[in-house]
Design goal:
The chain has about 140 residues and is an alpha+beta fold. About 20% of the residues lie in helices and about 30% in strands. Strands 1-2-5-4-3 form a five-stranded mixed β-sheet. Strand 1 and strand 2 form a beta hairpin.
């Protein structure tokens, strides 16, 4: 197995763990477990913003039973490798709230949780969130 973490890595280890972020991650996890935290009607609240992103064409969408709002989208330019992930993050950034996590799930799927936790600025709205799965369609 390759020891390098990227193409020019010569240290083979990092400078720290990521424990400094754990309180925020645990807080997000707690909110994600709250009944009713994922908001209703993502087609009204999220879809118009996603459709307006330059360089992307939304092909379809549906709300799944597990709370994920699944969006099929095609980039206007040919992308490969990490450039697909970065483009998906730019797409999702238009719906980002104070907490925002994106992961590459495989098979052209990218999953996102974004939301507002109690005390997040500006403090205007009650805590809520969104689960979004982008299926990247190529060809």
């Amino acid at each position: 197995m390759e020891q390098r973490r990227w193409d020019i890595d010569e240290r083979f280890t990092g400078v720290s763990d990521a424990a400094a972020m754990l309180p925020a991650v645990h807080r997000l996890e707690e909110m994600m477990r709250s009944e009713g935290w994922v908001t209703e009607e993502p087609e009204a609240h999220l879809l118009p913003h996603l459709r307006a992103v330059p360089g992307w064409r939304v092909l379809g969408e549906r709300l799944l039973d597990d709370g994920f709002y699944e969006v099929r989208a095609r980039p206007e330019e040919a992308l490969e490798g990490v450039d697909v992930l970065r483009a998906v993050i730019r797409l999702l950034s238009v719906i980002a709230e104070p907490s925002f996590l994106v992961r590459q799930a495989g098979g052209g799927a990218y999953e996102c949780v974004t939301g507002v936790m109690p005390g997040d600025p500006p403090g205007t709205y009650k805590s809520h969130g969104h689960l979004v799965r982008v299926i990247v369609v190529t060809g």
